[in-house]
Amino acid sequence: MDTVRFRPDRRDEALRRTLAPDGELIVGYVGRLAPEKQVELLSGACALDGVRVVVVGDGPSRPGLEQSLPGAVFLGCRTGDELARVFASLDVFVHTGPFETFCQTVQEAMASGVPVVAPAAGGPLDLVAHGRTGLLVPPRDAGAVRDAVWSLSADPGLRGAYGAAGRAAVEGRTWAAVGDRLIGHYTDVLASRKAVLAA
Predict the structure, then answer these.
(1) What's the CA gap between 3 and 25, in Å, rounded?
(2) Mean pLDDT of 18-39
(3) Which of 2, 47, 54, 191 has the smallest set of CB atoms within 10 Å of its CB?
(4) 3 state DSSP class of 190
């Protein structure tokens, strides 16, 4: 995880004014726009007063999503520092796909100090502490996504607390730290194997 690139101080008020000129709560999705990502589950959030949905990414589902997510802003692909600026400028990050094995975008949102709404399935279960760094919702449930966004929209203090806890949770998950942990697991396995062979 790149916690140097993805961090809260990348928040950009000029970008926020461009995306939400009336001061709306900015709810973002970042990822590939494909059927398995189920981005259409953001339709209920699009209908909420005072909410602007921002979609970052591209893929075969984009034309259909532009129809099914009225009022959403589609930014296309963003990478590097530009992507980090978008992440940090969100108020809430929503991941919709129930089939993620790891879900790097959830970690990038957390590193950016943004509270997360994600399905209680796959990778997000290992990343999002429900009620501490964000909210886990039943998979494939547009109503649950909408309700989670609504509850966070009404409570800026809670959004701030979840965002800060999310940042703290991923600060130790740098690529170097994860690699060292993996090497430690291999070392433990090899040591136990040597002990068995020596017995």
Answers:
(1) 24
(2) 98
(3) 191
(4) helix
Helix (H, G, I), strand (E, B) or coil at 140: coil
* Chain length of the chain: 199
Q: Is the pLDDT of residue 190 over 90?
A: no
Q: What are the beta bridge partners of residue 30?
A: 56
Quote the CA–CA distance of 101 and 84 in Å, as a whole number: 22
Residue that has been written with the tokens 């993620």 in this structure: 100
Are the C-beta atoms of residues 159 and 92 closer than 8 Å to each other? yes
Alpha-helical regions (H) of 23-154: 43-46, 62-68, 80-88, 104-111, 124-127, 142-153
Amino acid at 140: R
Cα separation, 10 vs 40, whole angstroms: 28
Q: Are strands 92-94 and 73-76 parallel, antiparallel or unpaired?
A: unpaired
E strands, the chain, in order: 25-30, 51-56, 73-76, 92-94, 116-119, 134-137
Pick from 125, 112, 92: nearest CA to 164: 112
Give tens-digit pLDDT for 68-117.
Answer: 999 999 999 999 999 999 999 999 999 999 999 888 999 999 999 999 99
Residue 166 and residue 109 in contact, taking contact as beta carbons nearer than 8 Å:
yes
169-187 tens-digit pLDDT: 998 766 666 677 778 878 8
